[in-house]
From TrEMBL:
This is Sodium channel protein Nach. The chain crosses the membrane at residues 156-183. GO terms for molecular function: ligand-gated sodium channel activity. The lineage of its organism: Eukaryota, Metazoa, Ecdysozoa, Arthropoda, Hexapoda. It is a multi-pass membrane protein.
């Protein structure tokens, strides 16, 4: 299996944007429905989504979270989880009719992204009493992406000031000078 790692670095201005605009969450931006973990990560969001779905379908959950100790499954609950295994075991791929969890989890802004480049499967008949797994890193050490804000509110003010100066030949000093001549200086 060959995989690549993409490291993501954020400039400070990125944290000032809304999660909707940047399409990711920082670890301290925990959604209100989070009860399992105090910090956000994509995998923590998937776990919370799975627990919520277990509670919705079976009114109980696996014993993987200490926050839900009063709602752990008994034997009937485990039968219900087993019956709904296909709905709980994997994520639903958008745009398909497959069964699975439909979680609206944003990626983390600070976690690295791991991608499988090539997945070669050997002939299973040649493997006798074990399996050989080989992981190779595609690019060494990894690729780094910097997430930055293209335009801020300050950029808008600067652009408007530049436009005013270009079109009218004015500046902030010209405006102050006009106010000075009108109100403070008597002829």
């Amino acid at each position: 299996m060959i995989f690549s790692i993409i490291d993501i670095v954020n400039e400070p201005e990125v944290s000032l944007m809304s999660t909707y605009e940047r399409q990711c969450r920082f670890p301290e931006e925990v959604p209100s429905n989070f009860q399992v973990f105090q910090r956000y990560s994509y995998s923590a969001c998937i776990i919370q989504c799975r627990i919520d779905k277990e509670l919705d379908l079976c009114s109980c959950t696996h014993y993987s979270s200490s926050n839900y100790y009063d709602r752990y499954c008994n034997l009937e609950g485990f039968r219900c989880l087993t019956k709904n295994y296909l709905k709980l075991a994997k994520l639903k791929i958008p745009g398909t009719n497959e069964t699975g969890l439909n979680c609206d989890c944003l990626p983390s802004c600070v976690e690295s992204d791991y991608n499988i480049v090539s997945n070669k499967v050997s002939d299973i008949r040649t493997i006798r009493r074990g399996a050989k797994v080989q992981f190779k890193l595609n690019n060494k050490p990894f690729e780094r992406i910097t997430r930055q804000v293209a335009r801020t509110a300050l950029d808008l003010v600067i652009a408007m000031g530049s436009c005013f100066g270009l079109c009218f030949g004015g500046s902030l000093l010209s405006i102050v000078e006009i106010v000075y001549y009108i109100f403070l200086r008597r002829w």
